[in-house]
Protein: Aspartate carbamoyltransferase
Organism: Flexilinea flocculi
Amino acid sequence: MTTTLYGKDILDVQSLTDDEVHLIMETAARYERVMKSGGRLLNMDGKTLATLFYEPSTRTRLSFETAMLRLGGTVLSVADAKTSSSSKKGETIYDTGKMIEGYADVAVIRHPETGSAAELAAGSSKPVINGGDGAGQHPTQALLDLYTIIKEKGKTEGLTVCLAGDLKNGRTVHSGAALLARMGVKFIFTAPEALAMPASITEGLKKSGVEVEINPDLDSAVAKSDVLYMTRIQKERFEDPEEYERLKTSYEVTNETVKKAKKGMIIMHPLPRVTEIAVEVDAYEGAAYFRQAANGVPVRMALLALVCGCE
Ligand code: CP
């Protein structure tokens, strides 16, 4: 049977089959080649994307918007969904979904509550893409992270990936761990004890046979990692500001860290960064985080076209 994503909601990485993931990677690579050769794509001509962002975003929002425009489609946006949409008047996300289906062909939502994208999808008959729901999932980030690793390292099988920083609250590492685990990687989890990866994720990975090392020491972790995936300490998810102050500078990647790294190690980060990667590291050839952000465009183009049946 031919793989298709037509009409599918992209809510989490677990709902994507391996064939669907490969189709997204192949479609993104094809679009990237067309753009690099100066070609134009009009696959989404006549289609509209609605973006509903109830939390701040630069990369996810802008890359989805430019992705839609580069495919010849149009974008409807609520400037700040939290304050300027009917949610302020008490409208449920489910009802917003019912309304959005009459205005757009596909919607992207970011929201502080886990499960909000699923609620929008329950209301809308049109495909809904999760652009990050609280500390839950960020599936499109996981897909662009996978795309980046394949581009940078040429494979995933056998690589050691160190996920570092706020593994408790970081939705990018929750989605990323679930997706990369299926691609043959080994993990090192590097976090202060208070920000460790949720036990349900770690135990789930181990039960499915994935190798996981818990190692809070960044220097010894980078010495054996092919990929260092740094994350920001998520200030907005802390209930106790003092706890944030205590943990905010847990790790800083500097040129000294890079000197201790395994040869060829790449450094990734979903961005924005605060102090966890020093600006001096940007000159390191393995500093892949800005290339990673750019990869969001072809990957999100592929997702939009595939769920709308316009690939
Ligand atoms: N990586 C990411 O989700 O960035 P934004 O918060 O800017 O969208």
Remarks:
- Residues 57-60, 132, 141, 270-271 surround phosphoric acid mono(formamide)ester (CB under 6 Å).
- The longest strand covers residues 48-53.
- The two ends are 17 Å apart (CA to CA).
